[in-house]
Structures are given as structure tokens and as C-alpha cells.
Amino acid sequence: MAPTGYVAALDVGGTTIKGAVVDRDGRVVSRLRRPTPPRDRGTGEVLAAILATVGELTAAAAPASGGGIGVGLVVTGIVDERRGLAVRSENVGWRDVPVRSLVERATGLPVGFGHDVRAGTLAEWRLGAGRGLEDLVFVPIGTGVSAGIVIQGRLVSGGGFAGEIGHVDVGHGEPCACGGHGCVEAVASAAAISRRYAAASGRPVSDAREVADRMAAGDPAARQVWADAMAALGLGLAWTAAVVAPEAILLGGGLARAGRLLFEPVGQALDRHLGVVRRPRLLPAAFEDEAGVLGAALLAWEALGRAAPPSSRKS
Ligand SMILES: [Zn+2]
């Protein structure tokens, strides 16, 4: 079947499944979201929700695409793209689940499969703020902190483990959900900022942005929590920059909406830590929380290209 005008793209996160119908140029023509079933209901329920989403998206895309369609699916956690495995996900409860082949078998469609952050990196690199760069790092900051890494024009996977900068000990000593201490993520994720502010002030907040607003209004607890986050992030990114030497670090995810309250202190931390090392530009990522789903669409196009003999490609 020839590649067509649209693909169905899904980004399966710990709380939400984001779905979109996407065209060849990365334009989203329709979207849908549904909650990810809680992990205690088992992997079968998550797969059922994925298949239901694929069904709705392909139904939405099929009339315009002439019937044939590809699926792109990215998931959170440790992912082995080559073998099509969700190796491990604390949020979804997966252990070595062959997601790609399960979805291919159930749908009869070619499936491009990957990791949410690496796929998001692909989207930012091909379509977004990283276009034209050979060396870049994309860091979405939301419930966690991790990095997608492009070195000399290649997206690095490391067997599924590359870029886990959220779980490096930067010395602050606080415990992390991973069982370690001092992790970047334990103070610098958007979730950690909200949680630590609530603990320090006794006032719950809806998200990290609210902590930023309170800091701007002069709240000392907010200022301390924010400063801790920026210090941990700055150190983690300085190490990353020293190892990878990216031309740019793209900051995305929910926390990037804090704008200069994020970019200024992190930029100053890089200046302070890097010295003779090339100091990367800090840029806002282009796609907010849609990088993963756009990356899934790019993987779907690749899968369609593999499934179709070159002579039948319309292009
Ligand atoms: Zn950790």
C-alpha cells in the first residue's frame, strides 16, 4: 500500500495518551486525548486504550488518505526501539512488552515505534527549534527531566538508556523516586518544584508556573525552591554540555513556559560552570507538549516508507 496523506500518531505518557492525525509536513489536522489507564489495571488495559485511539485516529484520517495509513507510537520509560520493546516504565507498569509487534498484529498497519523524548527530539530537530543543527540536546521538563541527544547528525539511543540526566546525583542530598539521592529530577522537575514548594510553605499549588508567579511576587519559599531547581538543572546541563558539546540546548515541556525565569538562571549557571567549554545556546523548544506526538508521526512516515516498495511511493 502506498504512503498516504496522513498518519496516526500517539504519545503514550504516564497520565495521558495524546493522539493526532498528522500530514507529511508535520501539520496536525486533528487531535484526541484520553487518560492512560492506571498501572494497577495491567498492561492489557493500556494496550486496549492504545488500540482504541489508533482506531479513532485512522477512522478520522482514512477518508482523506485513500485508506492506507501508518501508525507512529511513542512511549515513556526505557524503550528499545530496535526490538520494538517497552523495556520498563514505572508510570505505565510495562516490563519487556513487545508493543510494536502487538499493535502491528492487532491493526494490520505498519507501526513506527519509539521513545517519547527521543521522538520529541527528532521532531524538534527536523521540524522545530533544532532545524539545521548537527549537535543538539532537547530537554523537556515536566513530571521528569531527561534529554534527547543528537551528535554529529545522529540521534543517540544507547540501547534505550541515553539521556537519563534526571537521575544523576548533583549533590543536593534529597531522596528521589528512583531510590537514589541528589538526582536532578528530585528538585528540578516541574512536579518536584510544586511538591517542594507545597512542603516548604504549607500551600499547595496547581503547577510549577504558580511557584514562578509567587517567586516573582517576592515569596521567599518560592524563591528558594526555584533557586534549588535552577542550580540542579544548571549543573546537570553543564555536565551534559561538557560531554556532548551541543550547539544548542532546547528547553521544553511545561516548565519552559516560565520563560526568562527559567532561561536566565540556567544560562547564568552554564556561564559559571563551563569556562573553556563551548557554551551552548539555550533555546525554547518549538512544540511544547506536542513534540512527542509529532515525533511519533515522523516514525510513522519512516515505517510507511519501509512497508512500501519505492516504485509505489507517490511522494
Ligand atoms: Zn533519581
Key features of this structure:
five-stranded mixed sheet; 315 residues; binds zinc ion; alpha/beta; globular
Describe the fold and architecture.
There is one protein chain. With 315 residues, the protein is an alpha/beta fold. Helices cover 40% and strands 20% of the residues. It has 9 helices and 13 strands. It has helices at 43-65, 99-107, 116-126, 184-188, 190-201, 208-216, 220-244, 260-274, 291-307; strands spanning 6-12, 16-23, 28-35, 70-75, 78-80, 85-88, 95-97, 111-115, 136-140, 148-151, 154-155, 248-252, 281-284. The strands form 3 sheets. The protein has a 5-stranded mixed sheet. A 5-stranded mixed sheet has the order 11-10-9-12-13, with helices on both faces. A hairpin with a 4-residue loop joins β2 (16-23) and β3 (28-35). The longest helix has 25 residues, at 220-244. The protein is globular and about 55 Å long. The protein starts with 5 loop residues before the first strand and ends in an 8-residue tail after the last helix. The model has no long low-confidence stretch (mean pLDDT 92). The site of zinc ion has 7 residues, from α4.
Structural topology:
Blueprint lengths: L5 E7 L3 E8 L4 E8 L7 H23 L4 E6 L2 E3 L4 E4 L6 E3 L1 H9 L3 E5 H11 L9 E5 L7 E4 L2 E2 L28 H5 L1 H12 L6 H9 L3 H25 L3 E5 L7 H15 L6 E4 L6 H17 L8
Parallel strand pairs: 1-4, 4-8, 9-12, 12-13
Antiparallel strand pairs: 1-2, 2-3, 5-6, 6-7, 9-10, 10-11
Helix pairs in contact: 1-2, 3-9, 5-6, 5-7, 6-7, 7-8
